Amino acid sequence: MEGPFIRIEDSGQVVPLRPDVTTVGRGKGVEVRLDDPSVSRLHAEIVRRGPYVYVVDLGLSRNGTRVNGRPIARRVLEDGDVISFGTARCRLGGIPREDVDPDVELRRAVAPELTRREVDVLTSLCRPALSDAAFVAPATARDIATDLVVTEAAVKQHLLRLYQKFRIPEGTNRRTRLANEVIAMGLVRPLPPVHVPQQNRAPGVENRPPAEGRRPPHAAAGRPGTAAGRPAPAAGRPGAAGRPPVTGARRRAS
């Protein structure tokens, strides 16, 4: 088949992309119809602009759209990319190979100025979507409040301002659409893994030999009546632990 196309993995059906916009969804009037309850009637659009193709999630489904397992709002596509609309999987083909960065995402607008607290709210909102698990909804206002140790009412006020700053219209799944937009702009990214050393002690503490002339702590183990680290009592003098032995001069004096 000449030109870009999309293949539905469950049925094997191949649908050529239209020269401009190809609609994807569960409704009867779309070009790529997916009979899956997790797909909205009008779920997404696949847009062609010259030699480039990108997918746009319309934000009408709580299950969202993913490219190669990652949630997106809009993203430039490459030949062989796997697009998940809800749980329905499709594969894109027929796109000529070019030097296109697969991580490039089209941005709807320049990112607005954000306060430090608004960045914290967005990071907490998007954290579930940036995990390795598939089909994860963004955090709720209650989850964000618990994460940031603030009231739920304060979080909702921040979200209202963020909806305005990112121009997210009212409607269902508003948090999901906000999260998709933030991730598409690259404002929130997964944190790199933190390496935790196995031993928290200072180097050489465990393997340091005991000081010369000092008995190691375990030397007195198993010696009845002797505390660890203390010298043993004089031989033949029971109960004389810690006292110097009696000399001959002292015996004569007594």
From TrEMBL:
Database matches in SMART domains: FHA (SM00240)
Protein biosynthesis keyword on record: no
Residue ranges, annotated region (Disordered): 192-254
Pfam family, one: FHA
A biological process from GO: regulation of DNA-templated transcription
Keywords per UniProt: Phosphoprotein
UniProt feature, compositional bias: Low complexity: 218-248
Domain FHA: 22-72
GO molecular function: DNA binding
PANTHER family hit by this protein: NUCLEAR INHIBITOR OF PROTEIN PHOSPHATASE-1
Entry protein name: Forkhead-associated protein
Organism: Actinomadura craniellae
